[in-house]
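Re-run with default settings, no changes from the original entry. Doing this only to confirm the output is reproducible before filing.
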Amino acid sequence: MNEWFADHVIITYILIFIFLSYVYNKVFRTRRLPVLKALLVYVLMGIGSLMLLFFQLAGLPIILCLAIAIFLMLLVRVRYFIEKRSGRKSSSE
């Protein structure tokens, strides 16, 4: 799989940037920023994604780690949904 990522550098960069943006928006963003500050944050994330791209091309599993982080975030969201749903049933009985 790393060979495919090495052959398709642009797609790899876009995947890293999308995964990084998702993690930022779900974990670190507490409120909406003004437009220029948000633009600055995304530009810095683009530069950071470029650095992570170099690590990915050097053989480190950056995309895999980001995908696992997103999977764990979705797992926690499902768990909260199930707990919230089961809490409603127990309170109505």
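The chain is about 85% helix and 0% strand. The radius of gyration is 18 Å.
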